[in-house]
From TrEMBL:
Pfam families: DegT_DnrJ_EryC1. Gene3D superfamilies: Aspartate Aminotransferase, domain 1 (3.90.1150.10), Type I PLP-dependent aspartate aminotransferase-like (Major domain) (3.40.640.10). This is DegT/DnrJ/EryC1/StrS family aminotransferase. Belongs to the DegT/DnrJ/EryC1 family. One of its GO terms (molecular function) is pyridoxal phosphate binding. SUPFAM superfamilies: PLP-dependent transferases (SSF53383).
Length: 396
């Protein structure tokens, strides 16, 4: 998955242009910048690639989630439905707004189970946030329908699935808003950075202002710009954006390599009787950043994970035991361990999460294993890896 594997001359050239101009900020300094507007350039390229009207760059994927929700009016006490399998960033972004993360079960897609989402909806629910984990997507058809039915926002976290699609549309472009991360380990990177995409003019305008202290970006004098509402600073720097300008041009070639490597590994394991592949929703196309599969039992999966690592198959994950991506280890969230006080309303509604029944999630996650697909592997590395994977899983 990581774009940093193929980081090189193209990225260096774009960064050099920014260094030569000396303007490291994305706004203002028009006269000094030698026509270099890297953040704008990347926003244009991203919107085009994702077939949306707008893209707004921000400082991280986490920031993209916060800004996306804020731009659509999510605030204190609003409930956001998230899957039990995601990166901690998802609930951090919600808490940053004084809103309340509500966890719902996953299914054999390793993403939100639409039925569990239905059960989690109440009058305070404002957002359904599917997270397209490990390269594949949630059932966006079913989730869009639920969102429409209950008049909820659908905000896609596509941080781990950039380049994938559903029903012919790029992931991230299907919900009201979609979010990407360009941190150092994602499919394409800016070093640090993120973006939201949307077709909604108002959300875009809000995101543009909100991520820059509320600046309305009207006129040429930053000091004289208006502040129609409160904002924060979630800006990306020109240096980071410059890296992304080069990387997005390479996205489709990265995806091609990723898919090739994925297919070789998939081929090696698909006929093993104790292995079944993760379900990809109908009309969905993965970005192939991970190979995800289930073993017949949880005990087998744990054993397989250990054996794979011992056999030198690195980048192999048993998420069930992972600190950062699965609800079982989120005791800091469940016990509300926060440096300062959380809003009373958030405290009240987080209490009880500890006792929530996530056995449906545990059932699937307990059996799941993911193997990271790298794009820098040589042919020999891929085939060696494929045969090791096959040997270990067959021998269990
Ligand atoms: C990486 C990631 C994020 C956060 O992105 P950052 O740029 O690291 O803040 C959010 N959600 C998911 C699913 C991610 O993988």
């Amino acid at each position: 998955m990581p774009g940093f594997e193929l980081f090189g001359d193209m990225e260096r050239r774009e960064v050099q242009k920014v260094l030569d101009s000396g303007v490291l900020m994305r706004y203002g300094f028009d006269g000094m910048r030698n026509g270099q507007w890297k953040a704008r350039e990347l926003e244009k390229a991203l919107a085009e690639r994702m077939q949306t009207r707008h893209a707004q760059l921000v400082s991280s994927g986490t920031a993209a989630l916060t800004v996306a929700m804020a731009s659509a009016g999510v605030g204190a006490g609003d409930e956001v439905i998230l899957p039990t399998f995601t990166f901690v960033a998802s609930f951090e972004a919600v808490l940053a707004l004084g809103a309340v993360p509500v966890l719902a079960n996953i299914d054999d897609t390793l993403t939100l189970n639409p039925e569990s989402v239905r059960q989690a909806i109440n009058p305070r629910t404002k957002v359904i946030m599917p997270v397209h984990m490990c390269g594949s997507m949630a059932d966006l058809g079913a989730l869009s329908e639920i969102a429409r039915e209950h008049n909820l926002l659908l905000i896609e976290d596509a941080c781990q699935a950039i380049g994938g699609s559903y029903a012919g549309k790029p992931l991230g472009s299907i919900g009201d808003l979609g979010c990407f991360s360009f941190d150092y380990v994602k499919t394409i990177t800016c070093g640090e950075g993120g973006a939201l995409i949307t077709n909604n003019e108002t959300y875009y305008r809000h995101a543009d202002h909100f991520s820059d202290h509320g600046h309305d970006h009207k006129g040429s004098d930053r000091g004289a710009e208006g502040h129609p509402f409160l904002g924060y600073n979630y800006r990306i720097s020109e240096l980071n954006a410059a890296v992304g300008v080069a990387q997005i041009k390479r996205l489709d070639s990265f995806l091609e390599i990723q898919e090739q490597n994925y297919r070789i590994l998939e081929e090696a394991i698909r006929d093993i009787p104790t292995v079944s592949l993760r379900r990809v929703p109908q009309s969905g196309i993965q970005n192939y950043s991970f190979l995800n599969f289930f073993m017949d039992t949880g005990a087998m999966a744990r054993k397989a994970h250990k054996a794979l690592l011992e056999a030198g198959v690195d980048g192999c994950f048993y998420w069930f035991d992972n600190n950062w991506h699965y609800h079982r280890k989120w005791e800091h969230l469940k016990n509300q361990v926060s440096l300062g006080k959380l809003p009373q309303e958030v405290q009240d509604r987080l209490s009880g999460m500890e006792d929530q029944d996530f056995s449906l999630s545990d059932q699937w996650m307990g059996k799941a294993i993911s193997v990271l697909i790298k794009i820098g592997w040589s042919e020999n590395e891929v085939t060696t890896r494929a045969s090791r994977l096959q040997k270990v899983l067959k021998g269990l």
